[in-house]
Amino acid sequence: MTTSTLTSHRPRPPAQPATLRTRRLPRWVAPAIGVAALLIAAAVVYGAGIGGPVLVVVLGALLYLAGLFAAANAVEGRRSARNRTWSALIHSAFVLAVLPLASVVWTLVSKGAERLDGNFFGTSMNNIGARDANGGAYHAIIGTLEQVGIATLITVPLGLLCAIYVVEYGRGRFAFAIRFFVDVMTGIPSIVTGLFVLAFWVLVVSPVFNDGRPGFSGFAAALALSVLMLPTVVRSTEEMLRLVPAPLREGAYALGVPKWKTILRVVLPTALPGIVTGVMLAIARAAGETAPVLLVAGGGAAINFNPFENNQSSLALFVYQQAGDASKYAPARAWTAALTLVALVLVLTIAAKLLARRNRLGR
Amino acid sequence: MAKRIDASNVTAYYGAFKAIEDINLTVEPKTVTALIGPSGCGKSTFLRSINRMHEVLPGARVEGSLTIDGQDIYDRDVDVTAVRRMIGMVFQRPNPFPTMSIFDNVVAGLRLNGVKKKSVLAESAEKALRSANLWDEVKDRLGKPGAGLSGGQQQRLCIARTIAVEPQVVLMDEPCSALDPISTLAIEDLMFQLKDKFTIIIVTHNMQQAARVSDRTAFFSIEKTGDPGRLIEYDNTQKIFSNPSVKKTEDYITGRFG
Fold first, then answer.
1. What's the pLDDT tens digit per position in B53-69?
2. What pTM, to 2 d.p., does this model score?
3. CATH homologous superfamily for A121-359?
4. CA A174 distance to own-chain centroid
């Protein structure tokens, strides 16, 4: 590029408008365009006989965007037209993202309500045949609570200490290696953790406690789930600890507070709400896992309170088994169990958030 | 109670970068000493090496000798937390602990160092808050979060937190740079009062402030960017601001340099 072209393309300040006021579209125009777009889309789709209501909405949305741009461009000018079009696009993206979520919740509630009774929460599937309308998920709820509870007890201290090491103490290759392998662990499929625990715990270690016979147990499932939860807990805790400002640590050091106490009493409380969120995400993921439980706890129809002996089921596994069952009563049980699982995770999350907030001071 | 600080040949590094070189100065007990100089001349680094906060950063280290009443604070047998309890520090930006109330902030140093008795904590908190001229403003809301105070109040809260552990020396790293003139005045008044009990060393960019509050002034400077900072002149504040013996000092305080 030569100098002359550079000078000729020198940016000029935009022309100053004579007035700050511009013409605006009247309020009724945007909704009117929307209605018109839908009507045209309906006429086209049904007139040509090429689709149903979904296509009408999609085509209507596209027509609405085009119409809005054209109208705004004609009256308000180009900048305003772009602004309106992009706003409409962002809103439609939000609606698109929420639609599946709302659909899932609605499906769960409407289909799960059928078996939402005392019998479902009070009985197991023991001795329930294909022609029995009864039967419930009591044993699966116990299994989920125990397995996820044990997994959380294992994971949270381990994950917190690991993250504290990496952020506060770790230097050099070892800390780097830990971070790297935690990242690698994030990508391990759940079935692989199940196979790992099957090969390591169920087949090799459990015979030692079990008169030489390998045994399924809820505890083995908890081990597999904790392998799944660990990287999530470590990574989210790590991020939260890094967000704690350095001046806070220095402020504590300057008071003669030892490093470990600074971490325990200043850094962790400051990062607590974020850490709780990370732990809850990990719990939610673990509670929804089917494969590891199937592999190492085996499932089972009877109530088993003991996580260290014999088969246990879990809600996710229950859903899987009932959904594949030939009995005409099974699908209803699966839907209600799925609803129960979602509600359980929701309640746990809300409770944890409230607990974490209670530790903060009110403004 | 206040103690004398002796620095001889203090040199501090950030990794391979030498930030200050061969600083020699003596700070008398119960005085206010101001460290002035252009940005990057190492006055904050020197201040942070006095209570061993410099070494908190990875790769940072200090050579030479720093003693407090004859005890070498960099001795191998010295517990770093004991040094910091004896030499407190107030930072440039107020940094109250966000999860703690005003009361908890003030007694944080005591509580985290093992003081549990409620009556002792309450007494120390009131004493420290009164010394920091903050008591009347916060006595009715000690349970409210410290982060809800104004900037000037937060800084005085941090000063109260520092003096609650009863140090011998208080280091202040540009304590007023984030504050308005009224809060600055409140903190300068406070320094006059604290001088009775503590030795105070303050880093400041505000020459009027140095002239107002300090008994002695140390002028630091660097030759050019990348060179280590050196102590150019150290004398009574009045002498430095009226008749400095080094040309460079005069250039700086009259605004012809830096």
1. 999 888 899 999 999 98
2. 0.82
3. MetI-like (1.10.3720.10)
4. 31
Digit-coded pLDDT (tens) for A240-291? 999 999 999 999 999 999 999 999 999 999 999 999 999 999 999 999 999 9
Tokens of A185: 């662990």
Contact in structure between B114 and B96 (CB atoms under 8 Å): no
pLDDT digits (tens, 9 = 90+) for B201-217: 999 988 889 999 999 99
Nearest chain B CA: its distance from A224 CA (Å): 35
pLDDT of A50 reads 87
With CA atoms as reference, the chain A residue closest to B100 would be A361
C-alpha to C-alpha distance for B246 and B232, rounded to whole angstroms: 8
Partners of A359 on chain B (C-beta within 8 Å) are 99
Report the C-alpha gap between A104 and A205 in whole angstroms: 41
CATH T-level topology, domain B5-95+169-253:
Rossmann fold (3.40.50)
Chain A residues within 8 Å of chain B (Cβ atoms)? 171, 245, 247-258, 261-262, 265-266, 269-270, 272, 359-363
Q: What is the pLDDT of residues B92-122, one digit of tens each?
A: 999 999 999 999 999 999 999 888 899 999 9
Which residue carries 């140090």 as its tokens?
B167
The predicted pLDDT at position B7 comes to 92
Q: Give exposure, A35-59, as e/b (b: 16+ Cβ within 10 Å).
A: eebbebbbebbeeeeeeeeeebeeb
**Sequence-ordered strand ranges (E) for chain B:** 5-14, 17-27, 32-36, 60-68, 71-72, 87-90, 169-173, 199-203, 216-221, 230-236
Please give, rounded to a whole number of angstroms, the shortest distance from the CA of A10 to a CA of chain B.
36
Domain boundaries, chain A: 25-111, 121-359
Tokens read off for B1: 């109670």
| DSSP assignment letter at B149 | S
- List the domain boundaries for chain B: 5-95+169-253
* Assembly ipTM: 0.90
Rg (CA), chain A: 29
Mean pLDDT of B37-44: 89
C-beta separation of A41 from A33 below 8 A: no
Q: Which residue of A has its CA nearest to B112?
A: A257
Rg (CA), chain B: 18
Determine whether the interchain pair B53/A251 forms a contact, defined as Cβ–Cβ distance below 8 Å: no
Of all residues in chain B, what percent are helix, strand and coil, respectively (each to 5)?
40, 25, 35
Structure tokens at B211: 């002239």
